Amino acid sequence: MASSRKRPSGELAAALARFVADHALQGKRIAVGLSGGVDSVTLLHLLRNCSVKTRAIHVNHGLSANAGAWAAFCRRLCKRWSVPLTVRRVKVARAEKGLEAAAREARYAAFRRVDCDVLMLAHHLDDQAETVLLNLLRGAGARGASGMPALGRLDGKILARPLLEVRREALAAYARGHGLEWVDDESNADESLTRNYVRRRLGPLLAARFPRWRESLARAARHFSAADVRANHLLRSFLASRGLRAPSEAKLVEMLKQLTSGGARTLIEHDGATLRTYRGRVLVSPRNAELPFAPLAWCGERRLPIPALGGELLFRRARGQGIDADFLSGKPCTVKLRSGGERLQPHRRRPRRTLKNLFQEAGIAPWERDRLPLLYCGSELAWVARLGVDERFRARANALGWVPQWRSKPLFLRKSRGARGKIAV
Prior knowledge:
Layout: H1 9-22, E1 30-33, H2 38-47, E2 54-60, H3 67-81, E3 85-89, H4 99-112, E4 118-120, H5 125-137, H6 142-145, E5 151-154, E6 157-160, H7 168-177, H8 194-209, H9 213-241, H10 249-259, E7 267-270, E8 273-278, E9 281-286, E10 296-298, E11 303-306, E12 311-319, E13 323-324, H11 325-328, E14 333-336, E15 343-344, E16 353-354, H12 355-362, H13 366-369, E17 374-377, E18 380-384, E19 388-389, E20 400-408
């Protein structure tokens, strides 16, 4: 729906009918969150003309001396309009997060208990813009900047907000034009409540310089929301490519939040695997992967399984590549793990450096470094997985050499047809 200050009432009804049709809500049991205010009364009135099964739920928070009168108003209205009504009385716990947040939690807990297919709320363009602005002021990330979705989930219900592109003024004009009655919540004038302060103080200031600030923030919210949908799809595809089951919607949201937070110590356990981030990549490893490891002798085998490290060493012979075979003859070769202080010179024109520096340069994550195999020739370090051969042991141009290759076991925990590839965040 395109927003407008003077949207004709017929256009509002047609837009709501399109929303219901576009999202296949016909035939579903719809419940409207009815506070008794102008927005929710208008939404309920509009729905009466959409030929859908509609009921209403009123949540009595008990925070105002007028709360009982508001519930009585909703009962009279719904009786006059022949709309079934459920009234829920809730207790608001004044938690540290503030009265507004506590009331919202209590309200949504009541909404969860409503027997319906779709819960429809009357949030509009102004609500969306204020929500985005508040989230940004609180330092929210992309998810907070995406505001409220027009269509979401609340447990097993569809949560619909069909008026997100309609201004508050247009809804009030519709209500006046149809002679509707509503109640006014006196707390809307309380500027000690953050949202009221934004609405009554910041909103007019912004409008003086940026008349369409609401539309601009709502448009930005749609862009962020679209990016959020793409991120959800990408994470689902990434998990499927690793043979991991799809998480619940709530867990997926939390996983994305942690994976995109930039935290160096992010670690998520899911479906027998751990997900961690390093330099903008999400890396997956089996849970409890660190099995005891003891040094292994290499005696010239082409294949050396190392189950404790989750893979195997493969060796092939080639001229001018790998470890010079002459250096290996008559000397014991041993596979070990890093213990600290080791140095390697994988490039002729660069000096010998610590493995720590080389691993950092190669972008190898810290938790992987201590579980990569090192090949010693006698007491000298000749090769390190993912770094290469030390220059002292490199085969000469025409000399025969052994080329080691570390092949870790695939991280697919079960067969999957999901998309392959890395996910960048």
